[in-house]
Structure formats: C-alpha cells, structure tokens
Design a protein that fits this description.
Helix Hairpins; 27 strands; binds 2-(butylsulfanyl)adenosine; D-amino Acid Aminotransferase, Chain A, domain 1
C-alpha cells in the first residue's frame, strides 16, 4: 500500500470500528463479534504505529472505553478505570519483562489469574453498605447500574467484617488491621471486578429465547452486557449474572497483590480460585497453557490470563503508559475470529467435477494457527455473503475445524473490488462448465478432470521432479479434496495452519511438510521443466532445453539463481522454428512446447510460482561431482559398507566429510546405534539419511 492507500485504509477502519463501538456501547446491538472487532483494532493499531503521522485524537486507539449511556446516571470514578495492554505470544511477554527490567533491574515475581470475559464494574461501599455500582464508560465517567448489580447474588449488599485472626492470617500488620476494620465500618471501600454470565445460564437463556422466537444472544459476554444495561432491574434479575472481584482500589498499604484478593474474599466477595503465584515467567507460561487446554471445563468463558506484578511496592515505580498500567498484562488466548483480505478466488475441481470456490487470503493467525485459504462452498454462499475479491472478511475457526468466512465488511471497500465470476472454462483441463438443473454447484463436463489435476500435481512433487518428502499422491489428493491446492503454485502458499485441522496431520507433521516444501523452493532448471509435465517433454528434452538456455545465458555460473520470469521471457521469445532448430528436438515436441507457453493459464501459474517464492537455478556441474560442496556427517554403523568406504564414495562424488553436526551440515547419515549427532541433526532440522536412502543417493548420482 502506498501512503495514500494507508491513509484511506486507516480512515475506513476508524469509521468501521466506531460504528461497531456505537452499536455495542450505546444501542446494545452487535453486528460482529468482539474478537472480529479486536482484529480490526489490531490492524488499525499496527498501521498507526508504522505511520504515526496518521494518528488523530479521535482514533479508537486513543481512548480507554466507550461513552456512557445517556439513560443511566453518570458516575465519576474515584480512580480512573483503565484498561490492560494485550500480549499474544511468549515473545510479547518476554518483551514486557524486559521493559520492566529496564525500569528496575530485579527478578520479578508475578500473580497470574484467569481473564474473565465479561464486563468491568466498580463497586463502592460506604459505611459497609453497597452504594454505587458503575460500568467503566470512558474510564473517567461510567454509568450507574447499581439497581441491576443488586440483582447479582454474588455481590454482597453489606460487607462482611472479618475478625482480627483472619486478617492476621493474610499477613496484615496490627496497624493495617485497625485501618481495614475502621474503613469498612466508617469509610469507603471500592472494589473492581467482572460481571459475567455463566455458560449454563447462557445456554438455558438462549434455548428459551429460541423457543419464544426472540433473537438469541451472540455470546455470554453480550448476555452479561445486555443484562447490566437493562433499565428494568426485574429483567436484569432474570438473566442471572455472577461477579468476581479482581482488584481492591482502596489502599491499605499491602505488600502483595494476592493480599487484596484475600481481603476481598474475607469481605464476602467471590474471587477466582484459578490463580497462581509465579516465581518466574516459566510458571506464568505453565499456568497459561494449562487453562488454554482446560478452558472448556470452566463454568464461565475466559479469553486469556492476566499477569500482574505481585509486589505492590513496585506498582507506583512502574507506573502507567497510555491507556494502561505497566505492572499488568492481558495475555490473550489466540483469537478464533479475525479479519483478513481476500486476495483471489480459485476454483478447485472435485472428484465428480464439481467446482468449489476457494478464497485465497492474506495469511492470518486464527485460533493459534496461520491460515491462508478458506472454502466459499458454492455460488449461493458467495451471493449470501456478498463477497468480492479484495474484500475484508471475518474468518472464524472454531476448535480444530477448517476455517470459514462468516461475514464481509463492505464498508471497508475501496471500489477496486472485483466480482467473483464462475470460470467459463475449466482451468485444469480446459473443459466446459455447466450448472446442472436444481443443483447449487457448477461442474466441469470432462469426467476425467479430477484425475488430470491429481496426475499433474503428483507428477510435480514426485521423485523425478521436485522430490518433496511427505507429499505423495495420497496426500496430494487430500489437499486437492480439501480445496487447499488446485495448481502447483498452491503448494508454496500452504501454511502449517492450513494442514493441522486435516485428518492424518498433527502439528509436527504439518510443520515437517511445510518445511519440506520450503526446502525445495530453489529448483534446478531441469527438474523444473520436467515437473511442468509438458506433453512429450521428459528428462531428455528438458536437458536439451537447459543446454540451449545456457548457451543464451552463458554468464550464469554454477548454482546461479534467477527468477522464473527470466525463463518465461526466454521461452515466450522463441518462435516455433527456433524450437525446431534446437538440436534433437523434433516438430511434435516443438509444437507442444510452443502451445504450452502460449496457454494463459500456464503463464499465470508460472507467475504465481514466482510470487510464492519459487526461484530457479542452473547446475553446470558434471554428474560425477553431483555432491559437490555438500557436507556429510556419519553416525552409527552401516551394514553394506564400512565407514571408510562410505566416506570414499562421498568424496568421489565431490562431497565433504566432517565429524561434528552444525547448521552447515547438509546430510547426516544414520546407521545402527547412532550417537548424539543424530539428536542434534534432528534438532537442527538437517536432512537425515538412513542407509537405504544414502545408497539411493549414491547410486542416483554415480
Ligand atoms: S485486572 C487495569 N484481572 O480485562 C484494570 N482484569 O482487558 C484492572 N478482566 O478491564 C484489570 N479478568 O474487565 C483484571 N483477573 C482479571 C481480569 C480482568 C478480566 C478484564 C477487566 C479489564 C479487562 C482488560
């Protein structure tokens, strides 16, 4: 995007975010989820960070909360209700600790709590009695929702007065104990916490609403928000809410954050039991992972954990920046709804010839994985969504299932979006397209089309061409069926996140396959030509073509890397006669080559390969020196030859032997009873050859 485009995008995002915030905060309405809105806010935040000249005071990134509603009485907060900064990864948390240590270079201890997904509330008690409960509003002024909060049974209307022993047990001094008791009885105590709707209440309520034909609640957070904003407290009471305290505003000079929670508990509040004192970030990460796994077992929704510096004496030293405190961080769970942009729509041909539109997206992380494709199912779904190429869309990934596009945000359009067209011809076989009566789907009329796709793709990944490990015909078929791959260039835009939800793929195997593909992104020209699967063009013709190509590009040295466009330009300039004049190439082969390069679809795929990071190289070496420059390490004993014989073979082919594994090692040959070199090789992701593979490598190159 150029500067003007960035500015336009920022303006559009601000408008869209403000629109949804108004709906949410003022009208209690929702068009998109909180997670999707967060995703838009993140994009805006990032754009503004990179282009600070476009930050304006009215940007949604520049304020704390929403405006208070007019229909409730406004309440001035005694201490501003601030918000938290978000972290999305361990790196973010490490960076946070680093910033803390820059201010005070000491070992930090933390307190980790669940991050409840509800609404922040401030409760004020005067002389022991619940007086005012308020929403956050804009952080300075909130809305008085006392009547509704009084319907929540976990909010005490009168504070419990703890006895001296109880207060001593939580580590309070005699002076502090006196102060606490006096303040409860005669002063003001203020706590903050989260009003939430438990999952069970949410489910029952929605069941009832459905039966009564009323609109259902989008999620439990919205359920809680709707309840708090009821003008009629009787209706609020009907939606039974719960309340957990996470902060004591009144200052009694405590040492540790956990004492605040302990006192809140003694005062009669519900506090979270899922909390943990953490001596280091390692323990914080354990807490996070544990609840990420077990969140389904909880009676309420959480969207992450909150990490707090436990030593309260450090809080004023660390202070605040912008909208939030430095001494706390919201470590969010991976979002399950995000926004992304549709870059293209490709058509995948199924086994029966059915065409399925697939949205190609700018890669985004959703639910912990990166995703770059989503099925659009059929034309009816495209109409239902109203989706165009170039649109910003909301993508959802629920649990471990394949992500789907659930909504388009038309307000973010630039006017350059393109309608999605049903192709006139099948891109795989050139066959016609038809829509059968009473069917949603379009089909390619060529019955063999799917087989042709599979054959072409499997040929590309096969031993004789790219030789991509783990990408045999079965997996290729699976990827085609899932709509992830429809031409050879698609292999190179796959992400581990695309593969993980598929049957037969676990986290490790997904990553391994992506690595195997990435390792073969620099393709020897001869293999490339073979892989294209041009009719009548096998290895021999490919070698002839490479030879010819090198005559015209004599400046290319061994292993010289060049872009696919250079190869394409060379072929597009060749006339049919030029091709026929290449020694040993006959008219049939020349015709086939000529036609292949004149096919628009093929040119498109070559361009797409280049866009996806594929490049070409030439290998001028003689076959005998095929392992030239490759570094080998041998561990364990081989059966068919001695170590010395193996070394001699490698050296004969130009390879080098070394004794230790390092990142410079190309291959580790692993025999029986291998040593620690094997483990190191695995750790470094170095290609491992068992005896069988090693033999094949040698015979293949001798
Ligand atoms: S401490 C500075 N602890 O998350 C505000 N907040 O994204 C003090 N939240 O506004 C926040 N669980 O509404 C804290 N255990 C917890 C929390 C929690 C949920 C909410 C809170 C806050 C928001 C920030």
């Amino acid at each position: 995007m150029d500067k003007q485009e960035i500015k336009n995008r920022i303006e559009k995002l601000k408008k869209e975010i403000n629109h949804h915030r108004y709906l949410y905060h003022v009208l209690d309405k929702h068009e998109i989820s909180d997670a999707a809105l967060d995703s838009l806010k993140n994009e805006l935040f990032r754009l503004e960070m990179d282009n600070p000249e476009f930050i304006t005071p009215d940007s949604p990134t520049q304020r704390v909360g929403g405006e208070p509603l007019d229909r409730f009485v406004k309440v001035q907060h005694s201490v501003q209700m601030i918000s938290l900064f978000d972290a999305f990864s361990r790196d973010d948390i490490f960076a946070w600790e680093k910033r803390l240590k820059r201010i005070k270079s000491i070992p930090f201890e933390y307190f980790a709590e669940l991050k409840l997904d509800g609404l922040a509330m401030s409760l004020r008690y005067e002389k022991n009695i619940f007086k005012i409960g308020a929403t956050r509003g804009d952080g300075m002024v909130g809305e008085d929702v006392t009547q509704n909060l009084k319907t929540i049974e976990s909010i005490p209307l009168e504070l419990r007065v703890p006895n001296e022993n109880e207060l001593r047990e939580i580590g309070l001094s005699g002076f502090q104990i006196k102060k606490v008791v006096q303040t409860i009885k005669n002063g003001t105590i203020e706590v903050r916490g989260e009003a939430i709707m438990n999952k069970k209440v949410f489910d029952e309520l929605n069941k009832r609403y459905k039966k009564e034909g009323k609109p259902v609640l989008a999620n439990s957070r919205n359920g809680a928000a709707g309840s708090i904003r009821q003008l009629n407290p009787a209706l609020a009471a009907e939606r039974k809410l719960d309340f957990y305290v996470y902060e004591l505003v009144t200052d009694f000079g405590f040492e540790r954050h956990e004492q605040k929670l302990q006192l809140a508990h003694l005062l009669g509040f519900r506090v979270l039991r899922q909390i943990k004192f953490c001596r280091s970030l390692k323990e914080v990460f354990n807490f996070y992972e544990k609840w990420l796994q077990k969140r389904n077992e909880l009676p309420f929704e959480i969207d992450g954990v909150v990490v707090k510096v436990n030593n309260l004496k450090l809080w004023p030293i660390l202070g605040h920046v912008g909208k939030g405190p430095r001494f706390m961080m919201a470590y969010k769970f991976p979002a399950e709804q995000v926004t992304s942009k549709v870059e293209d729509v490709v058509w995948q041909v199924g086994r029966t010839g059915t065409l399925t539109p697939i949205a190609v997206l700018i890669p985004v992380r959703v639910g912990g994985v990166t995703v770059s494709h989503a099925t659009l199912h059929n034309m009816d779904e495209i109409f239902r969504l109203g989706i165009k190429i170039g649109d910003t869309v909301i993508l959802e990934r629920a649990g471990d299932v394949i992500p789907k596009v659930i909504q388009v945000l038309p307000n973010l359009r630039t006017g350059r979006e393109k309608e999605i067209q049903v192709p006139k011809k099948c891109h795989v076989c050139g066959g016609g397209i038809e829509r059968l009566k009473n069917e949603v789907a379009y089909r390619c009329i060529n019955k063999n089309c799917f087989a042709v796709t599979l054959r072409n793709l499997s040929h590309w990944t096969s031993r004789g061409a790219m030789d991509i490990e783990g990408l045999g015909p079965k997996i290729v078929e699976q990827l085609v069926k899932e709509g992830l791959v429809s031409d050879i260039a698609d292999f190179y835009s796959l992400t581990a996140g695309d593969l993980k939800p598929l049957e037969r793929f676990a986290e490790k195997s997904s990553e391994n396959l992506i690595k195997a593909i990435a390792n073969k992104k620099e393709i020897p020209l001869v293999k490339f030509i073979i892989g294209l699967g041009i009719r009548h063009v096998g290895e021999e013709t490919a070698l002839l073509l490479v030879k010819q190509f090198l005559i015209f590009n004599s400046q290319f040295s061994n292993n010289f890397q060049f872009p696919i466009s250079q190869f394409l330009k060379y072929f597009l300039n060749l006339k049919k006669e030029d091709l026929e004049n290449i020694p040993d190439i006959g008219p049939v082969v020349a015709e086939s080559l000529f036609e292949w390069f004149r096919n628009e679809k093929n040119v498109e795929i070559l361009n797409k390969l280049q866009k996806n990071g594929v490049a070409l190289k030439v290998e001028r070496k003689s076959k005998k020196q095929a392992l030239e420059g490759k570094k080998f390490v041998l561990t364990g004993s081989l059966n068919s030859l001695t170590r010395n014989e193996a070394k001699a073979k490698i050296r004969e082919l130009g390879g080098e032997m070394s004794s230790a594994v390092s990142s410079k090692t190309d291959y580790v040959i692993v025999g029986d009873n291998p040593g620690s070199k094997y483990d190191k090789a695995k750790k470094l992701g170095i290609e491992i050859l068992n005896e069988d593979k090693f033999q094949k490598l040698i015979t293949h190159n001798s």
